[in-house]
Design a protein that fits this description.
mainly alpha, 6 helices, 0% strand, globular
Length: 123
Amino acid sequence: MRNRNEMVLTTLIGITGEVSETLERFECKTFGKFISDPVLKRAITMCLISISENVDLLTQDFKEKNSYIDFKMFKALRNIAAHKYGSINFEMVWEIATKNLPKYKEEFKRLLEKYLREAGRIG
């Protein structure tokens, strides 16, 4: 049976992948293209909200064991995106989507693999 952290990490890997796939589908390689397309901005912002809501589902113990990850940043991003959409800094959203999320995706994969190894579910 999968535990909560395993399910959340799997979801986070999927959503971070969706961000990359969305940027590719819209053929978005520049901030100018990103900022000029309201549908694309909304799609990426909604993915970031979903990521932050899922990060919030990780157990406190998991967050403490992996405190090198700035989990509070995700919550702050969600609060701005969900409650103050008109004041979102889309340059920051672009940077997160194109620079930070690929790194977080790899980290989430590493953490999931580590969890599965410790649980004896992979060799």
